[in-house]
Amino acid sequence: MRDHKGLNEIARIIRKDIVSMIHESKSGHPGGSLSAVEILTALYFNEMNIDPNNSKMEDRDRFVLSKGHAAPVLYATLAQKGYFAREELMKLRKINSMLQGHPDMKGIPGVDMSTGSLGQGFSAACGMAMASKLDNAPWRVYTILGDGEVQEGIVWEAAMSAAHYKLDNMVAFLDYNGLQIDGAVEKVMNIGPIVDKFKAFGWNVIEIDGHDFDQIFAALDMAKETVGKPTMIIAKTIKGKGVSFMENEAGWHGTAPSDSDLERALEELGGADNE
């Protein structure tokens, strides 16, 4: 039985840490970090075979944050899981901090791939899944892309490759919040019909509410039952989810909250405590 009450509480803390660390660094990407919280919470606290005390465990499942600018959600999740001290989060983007603006696999425990150039993380995840297949290994690969990210051509090369090699040990989430740095995705460069496109490329495609744990876990269970195809979970999300004045606002793609913004955000998320 999955403890949704516990997962919701973890997600709340992760959201608080996201807005707090970006405020402290005066730089970062809150909108797309907040939209992916439930997905990462589900993966790290229920789904993946991982061990914070042995971050290089050979048979661990791998996770790649292809939309690397959303690093705060990954860092907050890793800290909450116990990969490193939560206090490190307040050093985000500061000189000599291990927590850079984008994930660094060489310096951060629990990060399996350095990402940032959009689309490349997705390609790396495909390579990891292929390596697992070639080695007859048990581990699975999970990745998350942004909807603006799939405007990159490299995404479709990787999608074609993953289907060709029947990488059914790979699960990708599309964080479909509808907004990118320049505004609405459909106006900047329309990616629709996105479901039909991934199906045409040979993927098993599932559509869900990306903030609903029941739907996330149901999709993950379906992915594990799928043979011969990689799975793309199209997760409809809200950019800035959990902070009312950030929700569905493209301006919060890469803007740090001010002192007053932080105070208001933390109040909405349950107060500025240090649980």
From TrEMBL:
Q: Name one GO molecular function term.
A: 1-deoxy-D-xylulose-5-phosphate synthase activity
Please name the top-level EC class of this enzyme: transferase
Protein name (database record): Transketolase
Q: Domain named Transketolase N-terminal: which ranges?
A: 9-270
**What PROSITE patterns does the annotation carry?**
TRANSKETOLASE_1
Q: Which UniProt keywords apply?
A: Metal-binding, Thiamine pyrophosphate, Transferase
Q: What is this enzyme's EC? A: 2.2.1.7
User: Member of which family?
Assistant: Belongs to the transketolase family.
Q: Which organism is it from?
A: Romboutsia hominis
Per the record, the domain of life is Bacteria
Q: Metal-binding: is it a keyword of this entry? A: yes
Per its Swiss-Prot or TrEMBL entry, what cofactor is needed?
Answer: thiamine diphosphate
- Keyword Metal-binding annotated: yes
